[in-house]
Design brief:
alpha+beta; 9-stranded mixed sheet; 1482 residues; flat; 13% strand; 8-stranded mixed sheet
Length: 1482
């Protein structure tokens, strides 16, 4: 029952049956007799079963770091083991009295003359239990075994308690006998007490006398032929009136008719927290939890008494007092049980619904109160011992369906009894309780270490001495010290409030109070530390140096215990003021006398004796004062001293945790605020109820209450980087922190420290150059560096900079909360009523965000009205009409961790897996195509836009479906399904241009498959997947590697995917020639039968689609290299892609393929094929408007046309097409394509000299890029910014320093080093900039880098643009060589320059837009070769630009551009033609 997947109570059980299942028949069928204590006697046989090895097993688990996980396994083992034993006892007619720890006690109540027959029955039961369950082998290597004791005779049944809560005990000599028999028994033995041996049919048993007059060991039973045990069993049933009457149920008590009187009687024996859950109708399997609790064991060793009734009254008195004190402190008295020397009381703090802050302190104080009461008021008490522990336990049901009990199991529970034995007569606690109580250290005494049975590593123990006022006062102290290396984040408004209070106090000469209010962990103490620093800093801007050169600050931190001491806060503050808080006690009086001299009359010094623990002589004047007069005089003296002090030096009181201030101190400070110009700064926690004087203080006009807000996400990330010692953290770690912190600095700090302590992060040197790798498993650091969230590096340039990644085998979703944060979250959860708690716990199983239907599936009785208060109070906030998410930090994680592991699996398996819907699937001239685009765009409107009838839901599906389903499949062990959903999640992330999250999901999928083998024939995955899924896995990894600049690995994976898809790609040039022949002639001539979308062809269509993706990747990969071999491979890949697309029979795929062929041909300088493929794409685009995939193909075609017109020099036309493509792409939510379109738009506007338009295109591009992690996109962006800086006639969007910092930071990134075209333009532009600034060393550096790249570029737009920039640098060098400014670059001749120019014209034939410009550069070189005079540098290369004669204008296309939604231009220069701007932007 602990695990919830074996024994589940029927949901239709009446309430009485559910209560009866928790109690023995002795209570269910008894008749109440009157006031407590009730005492009744009966004859019976007792069976005690002791599970040995259980404590040792718990000790093994306690040595592990995964306490909650181990507690789960421990509860699972014990519950399954004990449930079989319980059922066996019930089958033999036994009544399970209790299951306490690892001991089960059962009773057969009969008449005296029936004892011998029942002893035989119980002996037979014991032998069968030993035979069936005597040894239980665990995987941990610790066997569980049984020791069984039997006793018979007179049993006294005692019920103690009151009308609200009652407890059953069985006492007497024969109860002691069964305990003695258990102790004497060894593992797998059965021992009978001496009285039981005397009462049984001795001839029936084979025994061994252990001790005369004490016990005998039962070996076996003599069952002879005349004896038939079945007849004996039937005979015994006549003695058991409550034995089951149905074969379907083990107890008659579960079939009783509803009886309100019985129900009220039974309810008294069940804990209140459990009753609430039963009343709410919660199933039994929903009740069990794992949580941290504080357990208290009270042991009363009593003097022997002959009077049983007297003993009962003694236990009754102790039980009533203990129950009252424990409940007052927030705990519950769980059970009472007898042992040979007395009685024990087990109490628990922090059970479900009872969690309170400071439970350890409450447990210690309650225990000491009980300790004192028992010694002083219970005359028969021989020894009182109390032990307290704190730790994770299992709180839930243990036993069988017919009889179970609510109990707590865990190593810390077992430790209690060991502590009682080791430290008798004391109130002892473990180290965890000592630390978490936050009580003063002088209330404890460290105990000597002692060995304890089955405890291999006993921790430190302490004696609690009680809460006493030590002869001392508090000392100056703040909870946090200011960290000079970590500046305060997001607290400018709060600091401004303090500075304003300083100014008002200085100028108005009135006291000022600033009270900062914020929840736990919001940084109140850190804020006080910052104020402390600023206040004491000389010449702080709040107080000019000329006015004040020194400020005196009195800091104080209060604790909860301080609120119980009258005037404690003022006593400590004044001790700090008089500087006697750190003074040795022997010099305290002398020091205080010096401080009071001249300020307080000497006869009044004795007023401070009790307050400051000094011994001034009692004066006559003071001796005649009563206590009230003395108190008033002390306050008056304090006022007098403080008024005189502030005239010389400003005073600031800093009081942390002011909600713990006593009422007398609040009253004093209220009066002080109105009469003395002093500054008071305090912090408050809003959940506490303040006293009346505190409320009066807050209402003062001189007091201001400042709420402390949560940290912004960017500040939270900066804080996380500081805590981890890195400059960037991965995206999955950002999500982990956002969901668990919600802007709380303490949560962020604790979580980061927890990650470090669990060693689940890897750290990488940021400055180490990236290298290409051939293994997917080693890409984590590269992926992190390529998509990092960065902060400003440390001030020291020599300091090493690091980034971190999460280990591959770690799932952050399953990382347990640190104990501190789990306590905080469980406290929040327990403030709810049981119905709301169950709702939150079930919601936690689903995920962080979820659909209402899933919640209704887990809780059929739940309705939306039930959750309405929960949304407001407890963090389930409404996202949309049918979607919910958690809005309170840590609540979901804590609620999830409370469930036992098996119950998590049960819940997860109940969720229906929603279907993930995937997108569904005439010759035209260019003019007709563009007219069609214009008509479609003209038809759209804001109310009903045809482009948004089927918007992209990838983000929502990824967040609300794929990610939760992946987590649930992993929890229930369905790794095959988890692998599939991980692939879906990775594909969705790539579709959203989130390459890092795609890598994250694929890395998880890799961990499911296991480590790959070095030999292909040995490859065996841990997860069974089909060949198509493996191909998809390879294709997705290839795309991720391509986006990360890992070109070699990307090619390898793309080839592997094609091979799995039954489509090979050649490795050699001969293979390329042969495959090209096949693709051109054999496949083109063969009759391709288009596949339709019928069910039998869906798999073939999916395979073809994956082939198209792989081939598209391959041609892009080979297109990065300008070698002839790479061009042949790229051409073959595009040809194969075209044939596969035709076979796929998708117009959109065909259009996309022709666009790809067009782009490749342009890059290779094949003008004829370039324009032909583009025209073919236009002709095939007729039906592309009727599906989302078709719209995407249309946007790609529009971008290609804009690109073409730009390359050809038709700039106006290119701008128009670019805006139209941007309009379509913006609705499709394709960031990568949108960024490419904006890059083309910028280049067209730049060459058209529309710099204002350039700036606003860059604004749109920055808004797009800054949302993601696109390093290549940033490189294109900063390249454009550099062009604007060089030739923009004063226009500026990003400063040069920012551009240079980006290039320096990512210079060695594989993403950039793999794209030679972009980097050529970047390095050439940087060289030009440094030349303008006459920084020739830097010019040489970047020019040499550009010269290395120029031969590796192609004829693409970026390649041609970079080539032009390089030629400009080359011509400049020819001009500057005579001046001797170059030291490291070999002399360049005009022949070399002309050679480069000739190469440009031969290579970049498909980019004529730059030809006139290069022609002018050629003319400059030739003039230099003829030794002609040249123009100065600042005009030579800009003359062509300024005149603008080389651009071919094309104004034949006008009309509505359909760009009404583009960003409006702001701050346009006055000398610009507004009509011209309006042509492009509205």
């Amino acid at each position: 029952m602990a695990t919830g997947d074996r024994l589940v109570a029927p949901p239709l059980w009446p309430l009485e049956a559910r209560l009866a299942a928790l109690l023995p028949d002795l209570l269910v069928f008894r008749k109440p007799r009157g006031s407590e204590p009730e005492l009744a006697t009966a004859q019976g046989v007792l069976l005690g079963v002791h599970v040995t090895g259980f404590t040792a097993l718990m000790d093994r688990f306690s040595l592990s770091c995964k306490s909650e996980h181990d507690m789960d396994k421990l509860a699972h083992i014990f519950s399954y083991y004990i449930s079989d034993i319980v059922e066996h006892v019930l089958c033999f007619g036994g009544d399970i009295l209790n299951i306490t720890g690892n001991v089960l006690l059962a009773l057969w109540t009969v008449e005296q003359n029936q004892l011998s027959d029942i002893i035989t029955l119980v002996a037979k039961c014991s032998l069968e239990i030993q035979e069936k369950f005597g040894i239980y082998h665990t995987r941990e290597g610790q066997d569980l075994q049984l020791k069984i004791g039997l006793s018979a005779g007179r049993i006294s049944q005692v019920i103690v308690g009151d009308e609200q809560r009652q407890y059953l005990l069985v006492i007497g000599r024969d109860v002691d006998g069964v305990q003695l028999a258990q102790r004497l028994a060894q593992a797998n033995e059965i021992v009978l007490s001496w009285n039981c041996w005397k009462l049984c049919e001795q001839y029936m048993f084979e025994v061994e006398i252990m001790r005369e007059d004490e016990a005998v060991k039962l070996r076996d039973m003599r069952i002879s032929d005349p004896f038939d045990f079945d007849e004996h069993f039937d005979k015994c049933l006549d003695y058991l009136p409550h034995y089951r009457t149905s074969a379907d149920i083990l107890r008659t008590a579960l079939e009783l008719d509803p009886d309100s009187a019985l129900e009220q009687t039974l309810r008294k024996h069940i804990m209140k927290s459990l009753l609430k859950k039963i009343d709410e109708g919660q199933p039994m399997e929903y009740i069990s939890e794992f949580r941290t609790v504080t357990t208290v064991l009270v042991s009363l060793e009593l003097h022997k008494t002959e009077w049983m009734l007297h003993l009962c009254h003694l236990i009754q008195e102790a039980a009533l007092y203990i129950s009252t004190v424990i409940e007052k402190g927030g705990g519950q008295l769980s059970r009472i049980f007898m042992f040979d020397k007395g009685c024990m009381f087990l109490c628990v703090f922090g059970l479900p619904g009872d969690k309170k802050p400071d439970e350890c302190a409450h447990a210690l104080e309650s225990s000491f109160s009980i300790f004192s009461f028992c010694w002083e008021n219970l005359a028969e008490t021989k020894l009182v011992s109390i032990s307290i522990t704190n730790g994770p336990v299992f709180c839930g049901m243990v036993g069988a369906i017919a009889r179970h009990e609510y109990t707590v199991i865990g190593p810390k529970v077992s430790l209690l009894a060991r502590m009682i034995t080791a430290y008798p007569g004391l109130v002892s606690c473990d180290e965890v309780t000592y630390l978490r109580s936050m009580l003063p250290a002088y209330n404890f005494k460290k105990l000597p270490e002692k060995m304890m049975k089955n405890i291999s590593n006993p921790e430190k123990m302490y004696e609690y001495l009680g809460h006493r006022r030590c002869i001392m006062f508090g000392k100056r102290h703040l909870a946090r010290e200011r960290n000079q290396n970590h500046p305060l984040l997001d607290r400018e408004k709060e600091l401004e409030a303090f500075q304003m209070a300083q100014q008002r106090c200085l100028h108005l000469k009135k006291g000022q109070a600033v009270l900062y209010e914020g929840g736990k962990g919001y940084g109140k103490s850190q804020l006080l530390a910052e104020i402390n620093f600023l206040a004491q800093k000389e010449g702080h801007r709040g107080l000019p140096v000329t006015t004040v050169t020194f400020i005196r600050v009195l800091p104080l931190k209060l604790k909860e215990a301080d609120s119980k001491q009258c005037f404690y806060a003022i006593q400590t503050l004044m001790a700090i003021f008089f500087e006697i808080d750190t003074c040795p006690a022997c010099y305290r009086q002398e020091c205080l006398f010096k401080q009071l001299h001249g300020m307080v009359e000497e006869p009044l010094h004795c007023l401070f004796n009790d307050l400051f623990f000094v011994k001034f002589p009692l004066s006559f004047r003071v001796s005649h004062m009563d206590d009230l007069a003395r108190q008033k005089k002390v306050k008056a003296c304090f006022f007098q001293v403080l008024q005189k002090a502030v005239r010389e030096t400003p005073l600031i009181f800093l009081i942390d945790e002011a909600q713990y201030m006593d009422a007398a101190s609040w009253e004093f400070l209220g009066t002080l605020l109105s009469s003395v110009p002093i500054i008071m700064v305090m912090t408050l926690t809003p959940t506490f109820t303040l006293c009346g004087w505190a409320q009066h203080f807050l209402q003062s006009p001189q007091a201001i209450l400042v709420p402390i807000s949560k940290l912004a996400e960017t500040s939270l990330l900066r804080m996380a980087c500081w805590e981890l010692g890195v400059v960037s953290i991965p995206q999955e770690l950002q999500i982990y922190l956002f969901r668990r912190c919600f802007g709380n600095p303490l949560y962020c700090e604790v979580l980061c420290q927890d990650l470090l302590s669990k060693n689940i992060l890897l750290f990488h040197d940021l400055q180490k150059e990236e290298e290409e790798t051939s293994k997917w498993e080693t890409l984590s650091a590269n992926a992190m560096k390529s998509t990092m969230y960065s902060i400003s590096p440390a001030s020291s340039e020599d300091q090493d900079l690091y980034v971190c990644t999460v280990k591959d085998d770690v799932n952050l979703d399953t990382v347990l909360l640190p104990p501190l944060l789990k306590e905080i979250a469980v406290n929040q959860l327990d403030q709810l009523n049981p119905e709301e708690q169950l709702l939150v716990k079930c919601a936690a199983v689903i995920g962080h965000s979820f659909h209402i239907d899933l919640l209704q599936h887990l809780l059929p009785g739940w309705s939306e009205n039930t959750a309405s208060p929960l949304r407001l109070r407890e963090g389930l906030s409404l996202l949309q009409t049918e979607d919910l998410e958690f809005g309170v930090p840590l609540l979901r994680e804590a609620a999830w961790e409370l469930w036992p592991k098996a119950q998590q699996i049960v819940f997860s398996s109940r969720q229906n897996h929603p279907e993930v819907r995937r997108p569904s699937q005439m010759n035209t001239t260019e003019e007709e195509f563009l007219d069609q685009v214009n008509r479609r765009l003209a038809q759209t409107n804001l109310e009903k836009d045809m482009l948004t009838t089927k918007p992209c839901h990838c983000d929502e599906i990824l967040k609300l479906v794929l990610s939760p389903l992946t987590q649930h499949c992993l929890v229930i062990g369905e790794t095959t399904c988890a692998f599939y959903y991980l692939l879906e999640a990775a594909a969705a992330s790539l579709d959203l241009s989130d390459n890092y999250m795609a890598f994250f999901y694929l890395r998880k999928a890799s961990s499911l498959l296991g480590q790959p083998s070095a030999f292909s024939y040995l490859k065996k995955h841990k997860v069974k997947i089909c060949q198509f899924e493996e191909a998809t896995f390879c294709r997705l990894r290839s795309e991720v590697c391509f986006n990360m600049g890992q070109i070699t690995l990307a090619k390898k994976l793309a080839r592997q995917a094609l091979r799995l898809l039954k489509r090979s790609f050649p490795w050699t040039w001969f293979g390329v020639i042969f495959q090209t022949f096949l693709e051109k002639y054999w496949r083109s001539c063969s009759q391709i039968q288009p596949l339709n979308n019928t069910s039998e062809n869906k798999k073939k269509l999916a395979v073809l689609q994956q082939r198209v993706h792989c081939l598209s990747l391959l041609w892009q990969l080979y297109n990065l290299e300008a070698t002839p071999s790479s061009r042949r491979f790229a051409c073959l890949a595009t040809l194969m892609q075209k044939n596969s697309a035709k076979e796929f029979a998708s117009e959109a795929q065909v259009v996309s393929t022709y666009v790809a062929l067009s782009q490749l041909s342009q890059n290779m300088g094949d003008r004829e094929k370039w324009l032909h493929c583009e025209q073919m794409a236009v002709q095939k685009s007729t039906l592309c408007w009727f599906s989302r995939e078709g719209l995407l193909a249309t946007a790609q075609l529009m971008q290609a046309l804009a690109y073409t017109k730009l390359c050809l020099g038709h700039l106006d036309f290119s701008i128009k097409l670019g805006f139209q493509a941007h309009e379509i792409c913006r609705h499709l939510k394709k960031p990568a394509l949108e960024n490419l379109i904006l890059s083309v738009l910028f280049r067209s506007a730049f060459l058209k000299k529309k710099f204002d338009l350039c700036v606003h295109v860059l604004e749109s591009q920055w808004a797009l890029i800054s949302q993601g992690h696109d390093v290549l996109g940033l490189a294109c962006f900063y390249s454009a910014c550099l062009d604007l800086l060089l030739y923009g006639e004063g226009w500026l969007y990003r400063p040069f320093g920012e551009c240079l910092h980006f290039i320096q930071h990512y210079e060695h990134s594989c993403i950039l080093t793999s794209d030679f075209n972009v980097m050529l333009g970047v390095h050439a532009s940087l060289a030009m900039w440094f030349a303008q600034d006459s920084q020739w060393n830097l010019f040489e550096h970047h020019f040499s880098r550009a010269r290395q790249l120029v031969k590796r570029t192609n004829a693409s737009l970026f390649g041609s643009h970079g080539f032009v920039r390089f030629l400009e640098c080359h011509v400049l060098m020819l001009q500057k060589i005579p001046e001797g400014v170059f030291k490291h670059t070999p002399s360049e001749t005009h022949r070399q320059a002309l050679k480069y120019i000739k190469e440009f014209f031969s290579r970049c034939v498909t980019c004529p837009v730059y030809h006139q410009w290069v022609s002018e550069l050629k003319a400059s070189v030739m003039r230099y070769g003829r030794k002609e005079s040249t123009r100065p540098f600042d005009t030579c290369f800009t003359r062509i630009w300024i005149e603008g004669k080389f651009l071919e204008e094309n104004n034949s296309f006008e009309g509505n551009l359909g760009i009404q939604r583009f960003v409006r231009v702001a701050d346009v220069k006055e000398n610009k033609d507004e009509e011209e701007i309006q042509e492009y932007i509205c």
